[in-house]
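Take our chain:
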Amino acid sequence: MVGEVRVGCSSWTSEAWNGRLYPAGLAPTERLPYYARFFDCVEVDATYYAIPARSMVRGWARRTPEPFRFALKLSKELLERDHPLDDSKADAFLAAAAELGPKLAGVVAQFPPSFRPPRSGDGGTAEQLSELVGRLGPTIPLSVELRDAGWFAAPRREWLVSLLQEHRTGLAWSYLTFLEVPPLLTTDRIYLRFIGDHTSIPEDRLGETRIDRTAETRKWANAVRERLDEVQSALVFFNNHFAGYAPESANAFLGMLGLPRSQIPMQPRIDAGFDGSPGLPG
């Protein structure tokens, strides 16, 4: 393998990890440095909901070791449908991201399924996407996550690849239960997200692996392995909703790539028969 691979979780704040990854009674302010003992990167979910204060971002950088890296979700304020890009908000996000310095490894723009390509021409959402990547792509390590199949069908697919390549922007590879995202490579970075859905596993059942996603994980591990000689880096993040417990899912992915697994404190067992899914040995 040539490209550097980092594998982590989509957030470090999960309450479901208390007593599992996190010792009982660990203060919320201590979760990030404790998480950083086991993983070398994290995707920050909170930045999607609000542009963070620069002082907050500086705190994240200060509380993690030098090798640690962050990926930020682009604020939804910059993704509002049919609204021109707000330069002042873009500048505020960029200023906050810059507080991470070399610890900023990626930014992902998560568009909703309703963000569909126009039926013809380059107006509407296509124009909005062009404006966003043209403004941010050359400045930060940006990837875009598109959740409508229309973006990946010809001739829109060719237009999309050309746009992203021009502005050094990646297409996020994503495991979504409702859409097959093609592993298109448009820059020298891979950004892979294992999202799942928010219905298969109720919130009160998170914190342990509940669904066998081995086949899906191996499929994407193979896709990453096949392209590592073409890229400088690969960022891979797991959400709890993918299989129930993101830290263990991340560990499984590391193992499939032949990389050292993290020595996380607990290895939860899968509950047989939950949600109609076959259980695995504990």
